[in-house]
Specification:
The complex is a heterodimer of chains A (348) and B (250). Chain A is built from 13 helices and four strands. With 348 residues, chain A is mainly alpha-helical. In chain A, the strands form two sheets. A two-stranded antiparallel ribbon of chain A has the order 1-2. In chain A, strands 3-4 form a two-stranded antiparallel sheet. Chain A is globular. The two termini of chain A are 34 Å apart. The model of chain A has no long low-confidence stretch (mean pLDDT 89). Chain B has two domains: 5-93 and 171-246, Rossmann fold (3-Layer(aba) Sandwich); 105-167, no CATH class. Chain B is an alpha/beta fold. The chains are: A mainly alpha (348), B alpha/beta (250). Chain A binds chain B through residues 6-7, 10, 201, 204-205, 207-208, 210-212, 214-223, and chain B through 64-66, 85-87, 90-91, 95-96, 98, 102-108, 111, 114-116, 118-120, 146, 162, 166.
Chain lengths: 348, 250
């Protein structure tokens, strides 16, 4: 697997990559014909969470910013969608608001962190603290006085009955199959969009900043502006993920902001490999499946197992699953090629 | 007129490009650069010499905005740039090669140069500029190599080429020949002379043979202040300079 953040990533994607995208889209379109509703629901959730992982890996892999609290935008996206849709009934506009408000919050938070010259490690801590503050704040809104428009926030019970997305021209909200298509195509569009972003001057400059921010400044780039733009974009993607979660489950809750959720995103990205965009998608799928399996098979101890997996990857496979497998594959192909050459040389 | 002074187009008579007034940098109680008044004319190649810790690199980093002066002024074509951000100073036409190779190690030479060329607002044909520049600097054969895999000398050239790609008016080169072979050093000297046709240059260097090849005037730093300024001969024959920097055997 070619590393998307490697130097050749600035070139337009190769035909093989486009073929991979096309096949993935065909598979995703035809999949609901062959799998049952329960698997469709599980896969839809994995796609929604993949978007959250993509928002983080974009920021970490492209720009080198480890935002530990991407869940703040995820939770905001979910709550914005729920509150707007339940108050006004326009679910399409609720989706727009669920992208715009987290992006705006990212602009304000990012401005103070990035222009305030906060070092990377403090930025990670601050984003985590902010998401935890949101969780605490939402949890403490169980009283009847905490109402937005006509909707009670309900504290730690969350908001049930969030309406599904009803697109213009549709008589009723999206079905389970419709949500599957929405989530899967959102994931594909964001994945392709982020990959193509690398080929633009903006994407190249972001990668340059990740490599050596001081050098980029000395060349004349205002790195803060680019980092802030990336932070806002990443916030919007996480907001989209949160809104899709609300559409998927018809429910939002303070857990969307909590430490458990925030840490899981980091695990998905580390396990999948932050140096690629496809890695975090695979990481999300693998870890989510494992979590579901651990729960269903009665093994339990999900947190312990996930913690162990994280340690193994951090200590032994720092690049993550896909880059490690890619390197192993290249080594095998290289060795067998070398053996073939040696054999033909011997016979020759 | 001294032969070396004759090398530059406007060494003696060009307009003032850079001037520092009482420029000072203190780190706690330590004064790294002490009230330096420095004047550079358009078209010059100026060399800064001095023992380690004399304040040369700190002076460079203040000129390029990497550290903020404690007091004083940095006037570039009459505009005070003291305290400005590095990118603002770069946009005013100041390019710097730092002492330790300061490049984008995870990217190819081509991408390093592309990003440098793109930084200049007037450049919109970056690919052509990259190819031309690579030929000019002599790194055309390694354009698609990862910079992190190159030798120290090659990375120095990549950094110099990156600086040139931004088309600066003033180029600051901090030890451009450090760690280079004799042949590479000679090529670097040639490159600096060629660059001087379009830009004014300040070079921090320890290699006196290298300095002799390129310098029009030499400024000697000692204990954070300017000790002496003059032609190469004036500097090397000065007993105080020989005492504090060159050693009596020089």
């Amino acid at each position: 697997m070619a590393q998307e953040f490697a130097s050749d990533a600035a070139l337009p994607p190769r035909p093989a990559w486009w073929a991979f995208v096309a096949i993935s889209v065909i598979v995703l379109i035809t999949l609901p014909w062959f799998v049952d509703i329960s698997l469709q629901l599980s896969l839809s959730l994995a796609f929604v969470l993949s978007l959250l992982a993509l928002s983080m890996s974009f920021l970490w892999g492209y720009v080198g910013i480890l935002s530990f609290g991407q869940t703040v935008f995820y939770g905001l996206g979910g709550y914005c969608y729920a509150l707007f849709a339940m108050n006004f009934g326009y679910t399409g506009w609720a989706m727009v608001v669920a992208l715009a408000l987290p992006a705006l919050f990212g602009l304000v938070l990012g401005y103070f962190m990035i222009y305030g010259r906060i070092s990377d490690i403090y930025l990670s801590v601050i984003t985590l603290v902010v998401t935890l503050i949101f969780e605490k704040a939402i949890r403490s809104t169980s009283g009847p006085e905490y109402v937005v428009g006509s909707v009670r926030l309900n504290g730690q019970n969350g908001i049930p009955g969030v309406p599904g997305l009803q697109l213009p021209g549709m008589s009723e909200p999206l079905s389970i199959e419709g949500v599957f298509y929405l989530a899967s195509m959102a994931m594909v569009v964001v994945y392709v969009g982020l990959r193509l972003l690398l080929t633009t001057p903006f994407g190249r400059i972001l990668v340059g900043i990740r490599e050596n921010e001081r050098r980029m400044q000395l060349l004349g780039y205002d790195s803060r502006r680019y980092k802030l733009a990336a932070f806002v974009l990443s916030g919007a993607i996480a907001g989209l993920s949160g809104a899709l979660y609300a559409v998927w489950g018809n429910f939002v809750a303070p857990e969307m902001f909590n430490l458990n959720q925030a840490a899981q995103v980091v695990i998905w990205v580390i396990v999948g490999g932050r140096s690629t965009l496809i890695g975090p998608i695979v990481g999300t799928g693998v870890i989510q499946s494992l979590t579901v399996w651990l729960g269903a098979s009665g093994v339990g101890q999900v947190t312990l197992v996930l913690g162990f997996i994280l340690m193994v990857f951090v200590l032994a496979f720092r690049e993550g699953l896909l880059p490690t497998l890619g390197a192993a594959w290249r080594a095998i192909v290289g060795r067998s090629g070398a053996m073939r050459n040696a054999r033909s040389g011997h016979h020759g | 007129m001294d032969e070396r002074i004759a090398k530059g187009p406007a060494a003696a008579g060009g307009p003032v490009l850079l001037q520092t007034r009482a420029l000072e940098k203190r780190f706690g109680g330590v004064i790294a650069v002490s009230k330096v008044d420095f004047t550079l004319h358009e078209g010059e190649i100026r060399c800064l010499i001095g023992p380690n810790g004399a304040g040369k690199s700190t002076f460079f980093r203040m000129l390029s905005g990497q550290i903020k002066p404690s007091s004083g002024e940095v006037l570039m074509a009459g505009v005070n740039l003291a305290g400005h951000e590095p990118f603002q100073i770069a946009r005013r036409g100041v390019g710097i090669k730092n002492q330790v190779p300061d490049v984008l190690n995870g990217l190819t030479v081509r991408e390093n140069l592309w990003l440098a060329a793109h930084a200049h607002p007037g450049n919109r044909n970056e690919a052509r500029i990259v190819d031309e520049l690579a030929q000019r600097v002599g790194i055309g054969g390694i354009l698609d190599r990862l910079v992190g895999e190159l030798s120290h000398g090659q990375r120095q050239w990549v950094e110099i080429a990156s600086v040139i790609a931004t088309e600066p008016r003033l180029v600051l080169l901090d030890e451009p020949a450090a760690g280079m072979t004799d042949e590479e050093t000679a090529q670097t000297a040639e490159l600096i002379r060629e660059l001087n046709r379009r830009a004014t240059i300040i070079v921090v260097e320890h290699d006196m043979q290298f300095i002799e090849q390129i310098a029009q005037r030499v400024t000697v730093f000692h204990q954070g202040a300017v000790l002496l300024e003059g032609s190469f001969e004036q500097v090397v024959s000065n007993p105080v300079v020989r005492d504090v920097y060159l050693g009596r055997g020089h």
